[in-house]
């Protein structure tokens, strides 16, 4: 265990969480799709069922392949406990519903993921839970609203799609002062670039569908924390409400995570190159990437992240019309709603992350109609730039 603790991130990503689950001398964690686990010894069955002995009873509660995935994320996020979910949204909703009660107050930011924002605007108000939306990145406003008292401070950094950054440590301190749980969606940063638990967050969650899995072929979610009783409470909510991760998904994501560091580093390199290139393109009005010195939150990004990640966005002149001509010309990009995959993935914010909003709402959030989100893949960076170059040229001829 100490050997694992002392190991560097890439080594942990390959080895952590697997040893306890290997069988028959196999070097890889098996997929165990069994719905139930059988016992000949009635007393042992009872001991496991009441939680006095380690083991598995029923797949909605626990499963060995799923647990191996949880163990790996736990190590990579420097947590003490982890519990997993069928999707990232299940991780987010189950975490919120575990702790919130009628009359409670949540302090959050305006730019959370679309689904998360829907929980805040559509579902929590029905339970008489008040949600306060602060300007993303505005620590003074978050501190002020938190000081009025709240149950949860909910953050996401960097955000979708304009990659804004919020100071996790400052918000965590504010949350601590009023006894609030500080929850951070770390999907965009990944544990390669940011460990919110070390900055004072209580709970960190991921859409494992994105960078953790990395291959856009499995859905999953996970929540980790230092306080095991918090994770136990979330696990209990999930085991009863049933948003359990599938063992096949756990296997695929576990396998994907072995290359997490390699992928994320290449994606960040490519994002930096592409962002720098896009700044020189005439048709591009704005480039949003936290690694750029003129990004409004560059300093805090530098302080709390060890890399700036693979996500960026840019706004083109001519709005939707330019987007319509440009995106189909890209040879090495999927035009799709996901992100964090090995393939470069592009999509307009109006079609992907903010499809639920009206153009006016998007404008109010600082999202131009011509905003394109790019999740850089692991392709060669020069090829990505060449591809965008030819796409801009071809789009211009057509327009
Ligand atoms: C995709 C995403 C989610 C939701 O995850 P699903 O696995 O699609 O349910 C939550 N937060 C962020 C930042 C995301 O990108």
Strands, helices and their partners?
Elements: H1 2-6, H2 9-15, H3 42-49, H4 64-76, E1 81-85, H5 88-99, E2 105-109, H6 114-123, E3 130-134, H7 139-147, E4 152-156, H8 168-177, E5 181-185, H9 190-193, E6 203-207, E7 221-225, H10 228-241, H11 247-257, H12 260-278, E8 284-288, H13 298-304, E9 311-316, H14 319-326, E10 334-335, E11 345-348, H15 359-364, E12 371-375, H16 381-398
Parallel strand pairs: 2-3, 2-4, 4-5, 5-6, 10-11
Antiparallel strand pairs: 1-7, 6-7, 8-9, 9-12, 11-12
Helix pairs in contact: 2-4, 4-11, 5-10, 7-8, 12-16
The structure holds pyridoxal-5'-phosphate.
Pyridoxal-5'-phosphate (PLP) binds next to helix 5.
Structural description of this entry:
The chain is of the alpha/beta class. The protein has 2 domains: 2-257, Aspartate Aminotransferase, domain 2 (3-Layer(aba) Sandwich), CATH 3.40.640.10; 261-398, Alpha-Beta Complex (Aspartate Aminotransferase, domain 1). The protein is built from 16 helices and 12 strands. It has helices at 2-6, 9-15, 42-49, 64-76, 88-99, 114-123, 139-147, 168-177, 190-193, 228-241, 247-257, 260-278, 298-304, 319-326, 359-364, 381-398, and strands at residues 81-85, 105-109, 130-134, 152-156, 181-185, 203-207, 221-225, 284-288, 311-316, 334-335, 345-348, 371-375. The strands form 2 sheets. It has a 7-stranded mixed sheet, sandwiched between helices. Helix 8 links the parallel strand 4 and strand 5 (181-185). Helix 5 (88-99) packs across helix 10. The relative contact order is 0.12. Bound molecules: pyridoxal-5'-phosphate. Residues 87-89, 113, 115, 156, 160, 185, 187-188, 207, 209-210, 219, 221 line the site of pyridoxal-5'-phosphate.
């Amino acid at each position: 265990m100490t050997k694992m603790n002392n190991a560097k991130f890439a080594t942990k990503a390959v080895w952590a969480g697997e040893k306890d689950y290997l069988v028959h001398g196999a070097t890889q964690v098996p997929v165990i799709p069994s719905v139930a686990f059988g016992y000949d010894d009635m007393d042992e069955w009872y001991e496991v069922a009441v939680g006095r002995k380690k083991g598995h009873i029923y797949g909605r509660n626990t499963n060995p392949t799923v647990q191996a995935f949880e163990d790996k994320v736990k190590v990579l996020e420097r947590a003490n406990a982890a519990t997993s979910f069928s999707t990232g949204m299940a991780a987010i909703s189950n975490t919120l519903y575990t702790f919130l009660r009628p009359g409670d107050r949540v302090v959050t930011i305006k730019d959370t993921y679309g689904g998360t924002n829907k929980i805040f605007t559509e579902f929590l108000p029905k339970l008489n839970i008040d949600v306060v939306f602060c300007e993303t990145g505005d620590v003074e406003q978050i501190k002020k609203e938190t000081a009025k008292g709240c149950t949860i401070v909910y953050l996401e950094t960097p955000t979708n799609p304009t990659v804004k950054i919020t100071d996790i440590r400052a918000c965590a301190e504010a949350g601590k002062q009023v006894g609030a749980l500080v929850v951070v969606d770390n999907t965009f940063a990944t544990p390669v670039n940011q460990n919110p638990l070390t900055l004072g967050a209580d709970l960190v969650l991921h859409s494992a569908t994105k960078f953790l899995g990395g291959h856009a072929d499995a859905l999953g979610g996970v929540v980790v924390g230092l306080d095991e009783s918090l994770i136990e409470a979330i696990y209990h909510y999930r085991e009863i409400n049933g948003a359990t991760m599938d063992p096949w998904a756990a296997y695929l994501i576990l396998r994907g995570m072995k290359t997490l560091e390699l992928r994320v580093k290449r994606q960040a390199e490519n994002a930096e190159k592409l962002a720098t290139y896009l700044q020189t393109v005439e048709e591009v009005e704005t480039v949003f990437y936290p690694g750029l010195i003129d990004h409004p939150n560059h300093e805090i990004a530098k302080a709390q992240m060890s890399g700036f990640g693979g996500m960026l966005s840019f706004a083109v002149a001519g709005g939707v019309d330019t987007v319509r001509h440009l995106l189909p010309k890209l040879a090495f990009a999927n035009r799709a709603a996901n992100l964090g995959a090995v393939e470069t993935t592009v999509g307009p914010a109006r079609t992907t992350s903010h499809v639920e909003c009206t153009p006016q709402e998007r404008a109010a959030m600082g999202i131009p109609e011509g905003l394109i989100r790019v999740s850089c893949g692991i392709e060669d960076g020069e090829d990505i730039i060449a591809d965008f170059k030819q796409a801009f040229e071809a789009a211009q001829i057509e327009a």
